[in-house]
C-alpha cells in the first residue's frame, strides 16, 4: 500500500473509532489498538509532511499554541435567549407566538446546557472554524483548542450540506470536573469553583495540549445556514446526530405549554442525574418556516424561550468566619451558617475561597448571605443581602496569623491563597502530611486511619511520618478505643509499608506539586533519594515534563534540614528510598537506538509488558514498520501486510522467545 493510502485509511478508521467511543459510547476496538493506530499515523505524518491535514485525528492531542486569539465575525449572529420563570410567562409567550403564525404550533423542549457557547463551521464535511459567542456579532477563533475535544467531529459522516454552522455548548461533565479538582487539591492548588467557568476558561487556554487534558464535551443543538434543506428543529437534531455530532437524546417534541411544563418539572427534579449541569430548559418552535415568520427582536429570537430553573439559592445568616489550614499550609476561609435546606441537603458551611473573594463581595460576620449549590460542588456564597446588614457591622479583617500555630501568614506574588509557612510545627499540616503519607496511593498503611493519626499527633506520640516507625505496641495501647488486636494490626501495617516501592514513598513525602505521576518520573530519572536531594534546579528542569514550579518545590523541600533529617531516619528504618534492584536491573540501555514494532498475539507476555520491557531497556516502540525499524517482534496471527512489508524492507523479524533473550530482566 502506498503511504498516502495508508495515511488516508488510518485517518478514516480513527475518525470512525472516535465516533463509536465518544458519540455512541460503544467502542469497537481496545484502547491499546486505538493508541497503536494513532501512533502509526503520527509517525507517518511526521515522516511525510506533504500529506498534512489540519483535521487529522492526530490533532486531538493538541500542541498548537495560540498567543492571541483572532477575532472573527460570525457568519450568522449568535443571539441570546429571553428568559421565563413561570407558567404564566410561558403562556404569554405562547399567545404571542400564536398571534404571529398560522396553523398549529409544535415545540421542541431541550435541556439548557450550562457551559460556554460555541459556533462550529463545517465545509465539505470538515471542521474549518470554531468561534466563541463573544458579543454575538463576533467572537474568538478557538479552533485549535476545540479540535482537542473528542466529541467534536473533525470529519462528518453521511449526507451533510456543503457548508453550514452548528451551534452548541462546551460543557465539563461533573465526573471529570470532580476528578480535576481532586488532582489539584492533591497538588496543593486551589480547586476550580464550578464546571461552567472552568469550561469557558478552557477555551481560551493558549496551549491546546492543556485543553486536550481536560475532559470537555461539546453538545450541539442548532444547525444554521443557507440551503440546508431542513423543515424543523427536531429534524435538525436528528440529522446532526447522523452526521456524527453529540446531540443529547433528552429533547422532546411537544404540543402545548402543559406538556412543556411536564418536561420542565421532570428535569428540574431530575437534573442531578445528568452527567453535566443544566440551568433550565429551552423551548423552541419546531417548524422552521414558522420560526422565520416569527423572526428576532434586537437581542433574541421570538421563536425560542428559556425556562430558567430557580437558582438553587437560599439566604441565611453567616454566624462566623473560620479558617482552615490544609496539609500544604494553604488557608481556606469557611463560612459557618445557620443551617439551611438547599438542593435537597442541609448546608451549614460554605467555602469563601480566599481573602480577595471576601473583600470583593464585602462579606462580614452577622450578614445575611446568599448560598448556592450546583451539582456535587461545595456550596458557595454568592453575595450579601445588604438590606439586612447591621449598621454597626465591621468589615472583615483577614487573619494575619495562623489560627493553629500563630505563625505569620505569607502570600506569594500572584497567588490568591495565604499560607502558613510553619510546615513542621503547625498541627494540621503535620497531621495532614502524615495522613497523606499513609494514604492508599502512597504507603497504604493498613490498620491506621486518619483519625488515629490525629490522635497520635495530639498525644505527642508522633510528630512526622518517620516517627511512625518508632512506635511500639505499648505506646498505642493506652489510646482511646485501641484494642490489643488493633494495636497489633497497626504496628504490622507500619512494618509492611517498608515494602512499598520508592516511587510511592516519594509521592507520600508530600512535596508540593509532586503528585503520583511526577513522583514516578522523578523516581525513574534519579533512581534514589540521594540523587534527587542533590539535584539542582537546572537538572530537575531538564527532566522530561518537570517544570520550574515543580523543580523549585523539590529544591525547597530538600533545603530544609528537618526534611533531610526525617528522610535519613526513614532510610535507617528501612523504608524504600531507591528503585529496587529488580527494577534497576529491568532498566538498562541494552536496546538503546533500536526501534521495535510489535505485532500479533503473544504467549508468555502481554503486549503491554512487552512494550514496557523494550522501553525500560532503552528501546523505542513504533506502531508501523518503516526503514527505521530494527526489529519486528512477531506473535501469533500477525497481519500479513506487516510481514510482507518487513520482508521487503529487510527488517529483522524475531519471535517472542528470541526477544526475551535480548533483555536481562526477562531471564
Ligand atoms: P443566555 O446566555 O441566558 O442568554 O442563554 C443563551 C445561551 O444558552 C446560548 O448562547 C447557549 O449558549 C445556551 N444554551 C444552552 N443550551 C441551549 C439549547 N438547547 N438551545 C439554545 N441555547 C442553549
Ligand atoms: Zn500554622
Features of the shown structure:
binds adenosine monophosphate; binds zinc ion; 667 residues; D-amino Acid Aminotransferase, Chain A, domain 1; 6 domains; OB fold (Dihydrolipoamide Acetyltransferase, E2P); flat; 20 strands; 5-stranded mixed sheet; 5-stranded antiparallel sheet; alpha+beta; Helix Hairpins
Estimated structural class: alpha+beta
What integer is the average pLDDT? 90
* CATH architecture call of the largest domain: 2-Layer Sandwich
Strand order of the largest sheet: 2-11-10-3-9
- C-alpha geometry: flat
Oligomer: single chain
Over the alpha carbons, how many angstroms does the gyration radius reach? 30 Å
Strand content: 15-25%
Q: Please bin the fraction of helical residues.
A: 25-40%
Distance between the termini: 38 Å
Ranges where pLDDT stays below 50 over 5 or more residues in a row are: none
Bound molecules: adenosine monophosphate, zinc ion
Amino acid at each position: 500500500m502506498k503511504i498516502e493510502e495508508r495515511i488516508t485509511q488510518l485517518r478514516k478508521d480513527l475518525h470512525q473509532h472516535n465516533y463509536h467511543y465518544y458519540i455512541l459510547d460503544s467502542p469497537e476496538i481496545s484502547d491499546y489498538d486505538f493508541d497503536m493506530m494513532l501512533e502509526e499515523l503520527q509517525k507517518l505524518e511526521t515522516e511525510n509532511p506533504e500529506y498534512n491535514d489540519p483535521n487529522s485525528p492526530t490533532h486531538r492531542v493538541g500542541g498548537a499554541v495560540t498567543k492571541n486569539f483572532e477575532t472573527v465575525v460570525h457568519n450568522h449572529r449568535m443571539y441570546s435567549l429571553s428568559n421565563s420563570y413561570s407558567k404564566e410567562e410561558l403562556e404569554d409567550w405562547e399567545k404571542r407566538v400564536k398571534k404571529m403564525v398560522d396553523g398549529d404550533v409544535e415545540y421542541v423542549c431541550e435541556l439548557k446546557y450550562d457551559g460556554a457557547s460555541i459556533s462550529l463551521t463545517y465545509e465539505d464535511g470538515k471542521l474549518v472554524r470554531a468561534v466563541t459567542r463573544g458579543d454575538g456579532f463576533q467572537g474568538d477563533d478557538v479552533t485549535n483548542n476545540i479540535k482537542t475535544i473528542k466529541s467534536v467531529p473533525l470529519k462528518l459522516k453521511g449526507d451533510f450540506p456543503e457548508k453550514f454552522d452548528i451551534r452548541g455548548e462546551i460543557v465539563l461533565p461533573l465526573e471529570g470536573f470532580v476528578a480535576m479538582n481532586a488532582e489539584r487539591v492533591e497538588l496543593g492548588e486551589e480547586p476550580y469553583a464550578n464546571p461552567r467557568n472552568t469550561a469557558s476558561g478552557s477555551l481560551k487556554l493558549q496551549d491546546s495540549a492543556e485543553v486536550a487534558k481536560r475532559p470537555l464535551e461539546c453538545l450541539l443543538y442548532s444547525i444554521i445556514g443557507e440551503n440546508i434543506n431542513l423543515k424543523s428543529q427536531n429534524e435538525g437534531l436528528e440529522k446532526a446526530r447522523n452526521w456524527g455530532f453529540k446531540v443529547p437524546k433528552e429533547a422532546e417534541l411537544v404540543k402545548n405549554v402543559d406538556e412543556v411544563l411536564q418536561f420542565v418539572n421532570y428535569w428540574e427534579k431530575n437534573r442531578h442525574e445528568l452527567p453535566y449541569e443544566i440551568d433550565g430548559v429551552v423551548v423552541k418552535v419546531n417548524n422552521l418556516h414558522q420560526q422565520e415568520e416569527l423572526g428576532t427582536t434586537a437581542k433574541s429570537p421570538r421563536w425560542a424561550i428559556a425556562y430558567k430553573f430557580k437558582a438553587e439559592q437560599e439566604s441565611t445568616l453567616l454566624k462566623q468566619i473560620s479558617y482552615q489550614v490544609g496539609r500544604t499550609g494553604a488557608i481556606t476561609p469557611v463560612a459557618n451558617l445557620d443551617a439551611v435546606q438547599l438542593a435537597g441537603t442541609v448546608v451549614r458551611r460554605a467555602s469563601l475561597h480566599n481573602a480577595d473573594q471576601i473583600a470583593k463581595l464585602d462579606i462580614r460576620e452577622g450578614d445575611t448571605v446568599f448560598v448556592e449549590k450546583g451539582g456535587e460542588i461545595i456550596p458557595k456564597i454568592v453575595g450579601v443581602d445588604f438590606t439586612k446588614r447591621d449598621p454597626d457591622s465591621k468589615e472583615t479583617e483577614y487573619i494575619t496569623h495562623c489560627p493553629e500555630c500563630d505563625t505569620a501568614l505569607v502570600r506569594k506574588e500572584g497567588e490568591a491563597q495565604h499560607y502558613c509557612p510553619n510546615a513542621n510545627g503547625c498541627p494540621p499540616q503535620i497531621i495532614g502530611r502524615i495522613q497523606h503519607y499513609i494514604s492508599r496511593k502512597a504507603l497504604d498503611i493498613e490498620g491506621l486511619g486518619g483519625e488515629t493519626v490525629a490522635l497520635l499527633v495530639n498525644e505527642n506520640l508522633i510528630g512526622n511520618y518517620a516517627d511512625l516507625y518508632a512506635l511500639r505496641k505499648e505506646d498505642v495501647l493506652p489510646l482511646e478505643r485501641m484494642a490489643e488486636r488493633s494495636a497489633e494490626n497497626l504496628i504490622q501495617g507500619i512494618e509492611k509499608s517498608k515494602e512499598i516501592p520508592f516511587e510511592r514513598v516519594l509521592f507520600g513525602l508530600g512535596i508540593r506539586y509532586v503528585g503520583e505521576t511526577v513522583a514516578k518520573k522523578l523516581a525513574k530519572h534519579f533512581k534514589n533519594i540521594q540523587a534527587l536531594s542533590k539535584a539542582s534546579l537546572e537538572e530537575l528542569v531538564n527532566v522530561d515534563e518537570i517544570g520550574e514550579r515543580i523543580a523549585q518545590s523539590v529544591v525547597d523541600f530538600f533545603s530544609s534540614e528537618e526534611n533531610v533529617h526525617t528522610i535519613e531516619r526513614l532510610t535507617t528504618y528501612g523504608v524504600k528510598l531507591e528503585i529496587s534492584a529488580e527494577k534497576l536491573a529491568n532498566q538498562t540501555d541494552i536496546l538503546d537506538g533500536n526501534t521495535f514494532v510489535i505485532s500479533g498475539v503473544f504467549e508468555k507476555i502481554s503486549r503491554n509488558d512487552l512494550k514496557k520491557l523494550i522501553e525500560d531497556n532503552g528501546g523505542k516502540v513504533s506502531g508501523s514498520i518503516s526503514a527505521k525499524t530494527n526489529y519486528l517482534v512477531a506473535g501469533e496471527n500477525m497481519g500479513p501486510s506487516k510481514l510482507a512489508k518487513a520482508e521487503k524492507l529487510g527488517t529483522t523479524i524475531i519471535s517472542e522467545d528470541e526477544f526475551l533473550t535480548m533483555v536481562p530482566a526477562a531471564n
